[in-house]
Design brief:
Layout (H helix, E strand, L loop, with lengths): L1 E4 L5 H12 L1 H4 L3 H5 L5 H10 L1 E6 L6 E10 L2 E9 L8 H12 L5 E6 L6 H6 L3 E2 L7 H12 L7 E6 L5
Parallel strand pairs: 4-5
Antiparallel strand pairs: 1-2, 2-3, 3-4, 5-7, 6-7
Helix pairs in contact: 1-4
Amino acid sequence: MRIRAAKRDELPLLCELERAAGAPFAAIGMPEISEDEPPAPEELAHYLDGGVALVALEEDGGAPVGYLLAEPVDGALHIEQVSVHPGHARQGIGRALIEHLAATTDAPALTLTTFADVPWNAPYYARCGFRPLADAEVTPGLREIRRKEAEHGLDRWPRLCMRREPPRG
């Protein structure tokens, strides 16, 4: 697998990848998530211009099988999305994208918001070194992200903010 910056002409592929990655939510009683339309390529372009957009490619250098989007929020680098095509799940692609981001940023921490009880969400991110934030630790920018998520209906299921600091050496 190879990880590199996403290219503008790949953004429609990322939308399709997001649709496929959302499908497993239907099997755990969250069909609204699986049916939710991903952001349009024009919206994803924001991450090419003012954030981070990474893709993971198959060994042969083919189409993206996973991607990560991040942008600065309150001094940290906030991971907005990590998606892996279900046909390539459980192969370490999501973790590789996160580790690549961690190794290539000088941000003091990575943050994200996620579903608390979905096995491939909060429990997975905890295994990747993220910890849940107490309410007092949630920054204004993360509160705004959570407000927008609630407006979108995501608070129908428990959600939380998580943070990962670099290892202390």
